[in-house]
């Protein structure tokens, strides 16, 4: 059953590469644009959907979990195929978009860290009261 998780990933990967190529053609770039990211989003969505329906056995989920852990090496391998030097020679758009993406991520992280309530924080030590029945 673990092989079914791998087959699910392979199907998502092929569909992601196809959609990434279509997206690249649509914006006039002769490259795959976001194919691996699309594939991983499809895999996550399918996993949630299949778990919700009760159609994913634990063994299949183990196969999906394995490939979820392999996400970073897959992205690095796919990024190694991209021609960054040609993109930078083509104009400052690539550099500006990278700077804008980093800035947007920093802004979103800052907003999220300030807006959320931290339920994981420990209560102050003086507010804890122990009774004789409780083990310390």
Structural notes for this entry:
With 136 residues, the chain is mainly alpha-helical. It has two domains: 82 residues, no CATH class; 35 residues. 70% of the residues lie in helices and 0% in strands. It contains six helices and no strands. Helix 1 packs across helix 2 and helix 1 crosses helix 3. It is flat and about 60 Å long.
**Cα radius of gyration in angstroms:** 22 Å
The tally of structural domains comes to: 2
Along the chain, the helix and strand elements come as: HHHHHH
Q: Which blocks of ≥5 consecutive residues have pLDDT under 50? A: none
Tell me the total number of β-strands.
0
In a nutshell, what does this entry contain?
The chain has 136 residues and is mostly helical. The chain contains six helices and no strands.
Throw out a few tags for this protein:
6 helices, mainly alpha, 0% strand, 2 domains, 136 residues
């Amino acid at each position: 059953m673990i092989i079914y998780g791998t087959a699910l990933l392979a199907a998502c990967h092929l569909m992601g590469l196809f959609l990434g190529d279509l997206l690249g053609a649509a914006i006039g770039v002769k490259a795959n644009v976001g194919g691996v990211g699309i594939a991983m989003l499809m895999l996550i969505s399918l996993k949630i959907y299949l778990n919700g329906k009760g159609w994913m056995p634990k063994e299949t989920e183990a196969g999906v979990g394995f490939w979820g852990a392999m996400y970073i090496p897959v992205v690095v391998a796919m990024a190694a195929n991209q021609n960054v030097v040609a993109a930078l020679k083509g104009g400052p758009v690539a550099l500006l978009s990278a700077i804008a993406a980093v800035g947007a991520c920093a802004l979103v992280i800052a907003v999220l860290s300030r807006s959320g309530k931290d339920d994981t924080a420990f209560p102050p030590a003086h507010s804890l009261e122990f009774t004789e029945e409780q083990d310390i």
